[in-house]
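ARCHIVE CARD
Drawer: 12
Card no.: 0347
Subject: one protein chain, sequence and derived structure
Cross-reference: see card 0346
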Amino acid sequence: MSYAILDNNRFYAEGLRYALLRRNAQTQVESGTVKWCRSLLACNTLVVRCRFSVAGAHLALVDILLQLEARRWEGTVYLVCNEKGWALATHLRKRFAALTLYIIDDRIAVADAAYLLAREPRRVRTLNCCLTGMEFNVLDRLVNGQSVRHVAHMTQMSEKQVSTYKCNALKKLNANNLLQLLL
């Protein structure tokens, strides 16, 4: 079994790497930042931990998942995320249905995470608050600096519809405004 642990904060990645190595001496574990590299294809299990937002690390994660999907990778991806990231992670799981994706809460201890990764999950947590494609699209555009008026024009919707999608998405992500998504 070989693992790749990607995290923008090296402390978590190294801690999880050490915990996995302690559980099984035959395990190969590499760690690095959240970005695509060809060596990921050689791993059976990919663990990605990042603070999910619509920008930054999220875009790097989407790039990784697109690359894996295009190459028909048959390993397992674990998305380790915080509470606000559950809806986005669930959206990614639906979008990349060809990949085996599991979601793990980042509040669990590193030792417990190593235990979970060593075993096949029995069930997958689902959310009723998953973002719809349009909610995700509107949020993505707004976080990237487009105005509500511009998004309405580009998506051929009214400004009121765009605002409604934005408000619904923010409620699902437990955020009061767009700035909270970026922090």
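Annotation on reverse: Residues 122-128 have pLDDT under 50 and may be disordered. The chain has two domains: 2-118, 133-182.
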